[in-house]
Amino acid sequence: MRVGIVGGSGYTGGELVRLLLMHPEVEISIITSESYKGKMVKRVHPNLRGVTDLKFSGMDELDSYDLLCCGLPHGMTMERMPEFLEHADRVIDLSGDFRLRNPEDYQTWYGVEHPNPELLSEAVYGIPELHREEIRKARLVSGAGCLATSAILGLHPLAKEGLITGTAVIDSKVGSSATGAKSSRSTHHPERSGVVRSYKPTMHRHTAEMEQELGVDAAFSPHAVEMVRGILSTCHIFLDEPLEEKDVWGVYRSAYGDEPFIRIVKEKSGIYRYPEPKLLIGSNYCDIGFEREGRNNRLVVMSAIDNLMKGAAGQAVQCLNVMYGFEETLGLETIGLHPI
Amino acid sequence: MRVGIVGGSGYTGGELVRLLLMHPEVEISIITSESYKGKMVKRVHPNLRGVTDLKFSGMDELDSYDLLCCGLPHGMTMERMPEFLEHADRVIDLSGDFRLRNPEDYQTWYGVEHPNPELLSEAVYGIPELHREEIRKARLVSGAGCLATSAILGLHPLAKEGLITGTAVIDSKVGSSATGAKSSRSTHHPERSGVVRSYKPTMHRHTAEMEQELGVDAAFSPHAVEMVRGILSTCHIFLDEPLEEKDVWGVYRSAYGDEPFIRIVKEKSGIYRYPEPKLLIGSNYCDIGFEREGRNNRLVVMSAIDNLMKGAAGQAVQCLNVMYGFEETLGLETIGLHPI
Amino acid sequence: MRVGIVGGSGYTGGELVRLLLMHPEVEISIITSESYKGKMVKRVHPNLRGVTDLKFSGMDELDSYDLLCCGLPHGMTMERMPEFLEHADRVIDLSGDFRLRNPEDYQTWYGVEHPNPELLSEAVYGIPELHREEIRKARLVSGAGCLATSAILGLHPLAKEGLITGTAVIDSKVGSSATGAKSSRSTHHPERSGVVRSYKPTMHRHTAEMEQELGVDAAFSPHAVEMVRGILSTCHIFLDEPLEEKDVWGVYRSAYGDEPFIRIVKEKSGIYRYPEPKLLIGSNYCDIGFEREGRNNRLVVMSAIDNLMKGAAGQAVQCLNVMYGFEETLGLETIGLHPI
Amino acid sequence: MRVGIVGGSGYTGGELVRLLLMHPEVEISIITSESYKGKMVKRVHPNLRGVTDLKFSGMDELDSYDLLCCGLPHGMTMERMPEFLEHADRVIDLSGDFRLRNPEDYQTWYGVEHPNPELLSEAVYGIPELHREEIRKARLVSGAGCLATSAILGLHPLAKEGLITGTAVIDSKVGSSATGAKSSRSTHHPERSGVVRSYKPTMHRHTAEMEQELGVDAAFSPHAVEMVRGILSTCHIFLDEPLEEKDVWGVYRSAYGDEPFIRIVKEKSGIYRYPEPKLLIGSNYCDIGFEREGRNNRLVVMSAIDNLMKGAAGQAVQCLNVMYGFEETLGLETIGLHPI
User: What domains can you pick out in chain D, each with its CATH number?
Assistant: First the structure.
């Protein structure tokens, strides 16, 4: 199938190029970048040296494709989506521009009026574990936010069973690649190295996605920590009823028993007893673990992903596989590295 | 004054040696280590090269001192405290052995019967901001746990005003030096580098100190992240009444207005708007910040320290200064480094 | 083909398991580990969760295989090789035990008398770019040292042309995984984090391999730096004749023009103008670059690899492919990740 | 004494402010920054919160001072020095603008014609270990380059004795703070984290300083590695005569025996046997070690510093102490931290 990538110079775009180059059913027909138009893709993504000699095109060179994947910065796809839909039968958008169903949420969380609200109701939120059937038929799939993906996958089984009655506290730790490829004072190495930076302790935009998909109240605070790729979300839930750990096992098993990209990680010994993003670099897995504190009836759920894989480009390829009826793991079989 | 250090080969012991060597009123009379007995202190603490030619002694060489500081591993000081009190008028213990007032808490949290329960009631919990007057007169001061210090200092003003009515969720991020100087598989560099490791998501021992000192229910989960020194504790509190941020300012200012080692960090712009442990390496400050989320009446309190300074040796020297009537900042004036 | 892995619990062993699980022509028939016998392989290599349910066997359970790959610690394979050769038609050894052709070199560099000197003359040094034809026919292939591989591949084209007449200064920077899976004081995270540690500035054992394979005098000094995987070797060569850069290009192109795993990296602009190990994590490439300093007729050659891939397990699989007539890149197509 | 700091918003300027705030004989009378004019110094250097309420002034507000310290970017001080000398009796310049004695060297290495060549002959190169007496009397002291300082201090004793007859190969590893406070693609955390980046393998400007001060041919290649502060320079020297290690000891002892900021680090065991920049963060020491390789008569000299301390601001304060007859260690007594 012929796939075009609009906005391929960022980190998500680059990861998508890497994955689609390895995908046996996909031919990348165009990669656009307004800033790097005419330059070799491998100049921007140096890991692709020796692998591809593709060049960046301009957006004005778009032709017709089976699928367009959009990796533009937030706010740019909102306006242009109707145009993109003329160039392709189906679109996967990796920005935040089509994640929320309710146009008013864009006012509240993004401070903008959405220019294409009718497309919002059509768009499907791109987490196959929650919306597989809708994705299969969707014309427009909206990639989920990276922090949102980790929290939603971690809590979805509990939320679905109505076990989260109070507010879920979600405390996330995230690597620097989630900020994107643009440098700034806050990502300058001497300032970013070794931090534990609470950069948006309240009102982070991904909260809206979490509440939309889980149907529960979310109190979310992300922290930038010293790593490039990876997210660990620690979710603190206070249960109404004293669920035993084996019951929690049951809930997760029934929700995720057949999921190819979910692993329940909960071991009695060893140093990787709980989910660890370090083990997932380059992999599309979401590792989920939990532990119950009996004294206060708290359930701690930990959920780890690679933000550029299951949190962005990997999940987009998973959606592509669902949309086109390929084996869901096709092109995503990479095993994580250890140690790394 | 003549000070002896019992157990000086670990990280806390080494930091104490460094600080006391710079303290104008202190003479270090002995440093013990059973493993390194007879060896130069600078062989174990290579930062002290060119600074001291002291050697480690054995515990059997203990004489009489004004003050003994104990840096032994947890569980060793419990038994020996009566003996140490014969060698010195006063003792500061940096282990966890005398932190809890209630002997039963040692059963619950440490799984041991405390051999000297009568000393537990005498011991004073070594956070001057909470117990300055008792520390001044104390014979036995027990250094606070590093994770506990960050959480307690962060929440104390709110707890004192009765503003924490529900369970406080405390999600901490901590550097590798908190594990101590002993190597293991979990601290092996290829395994520890770049992790976000939830190593004890429930029932961590420091919970007991937090609940004792704050008088509130604490739901605590620490995470090992990529740094050597430093702790950030993020505390999620749900307020009963809709406190405005200026009211919260008032609460913190009234509690800490004159404290030499507390800084309230809350700025509108810049990349260090909230507390950041990276800025505190080598410093005795505890930086505290907060932000309110109106929609769910959550207050996020962030508290940062250097675990070996305000979280251990620095706070011990602060206690020493209080105990002996010195200026509280004496020997602790080091300004943090930036960038680092 | 049926492959057995002897000594599969270390980092090289684990990487080999990961690669062979993805290799379409290989079936892993046994993985031994005396320490973890009976335990699941994924308990030791947690990246393999969900990928394999193999268990470790004891060495006493060895049967017959097409190929045995040995990942035992240095010094253990020397004695046992005759035994291993009874269990398999061919052997690839990843330790240092069969790398040197001259038995006396084992005295000089390893301080031991080699127990099987006759096998030394049979063993082929496992760098396909230098010994492809011998490897094709070899019964015993000895994996090259990781630091040696980077230096040898970097300098081989120059050495072959007789352009290195004086001593080559080789200054290498290496990640912590090269030390192996065993923890110690020197790899304890607080001690290893952020170092630039010159741990063996002279007489490092890999010098012997470099001199053997290049036929030049090598002055080698490795440094442990802050990374888990990766090696950059910077080689300083003083040329007798004033070779132009385009001549150097010619030398490298003629030596490596058709090599699937060598990339010449030398760009005029950008931040990855020269070889960078960070781009190679998980990849089998060796990136080589150079720059000439006219004023002193120095040629600086930089050579980067992933120590566990091209420096160990990846190169072993490359040798396997050569030995059995498979496509040389089979199972090694992974593209490096960026950013990481 | 009244000291002014011109260009105080960069990393060197900030470090100078930190040090001079702790210096008992210095009063900081002005700190200029054109970009941050009118803003609190602690907003740019957040480690100074609670320590100073100074604000940045503009350069047009300069008055008269005993000493001006210039921390402007390279190229800006060249022109303005005559003006600065009207505002102060003496000047210490921390840029590269007055380091080279020969105006033609500015053509060769910096590509500019120096506008004030007469001041070049007056300026003294600011390494007290080499030029103490000239610094004492100098009107204009030029701070040495950070990489140059490490190499020069490492090799000076050998050079002085005429023991370096061939070209000295100097392979340095340096942290990200040496690049300065300005962010760019190359310092963007995802791109800079974990690199071993050879960014200027030949013709680096600091070569000129090394050759000027040592009087030997230098073949210099720096590498950016994963740390914020610190430099290790590994110098490979081929000796004409087979010097024994005890002779080398003698050479270093006779050159540096009384130096307060030089430590010879060479131990038989332990993990810090050789100089390690990690131990020097925040300290003004230069640690030097060496090892001889008999087989090729190579001497490996390792030299470690904190680039912002002994490599910049610390050494400037040391020069200040020399210039004004203070104890040379005044305000520089900070002991390095361990672990860090």
Answer: 2-122 (3.40.50.720), 146-305 (3.30.360.10)
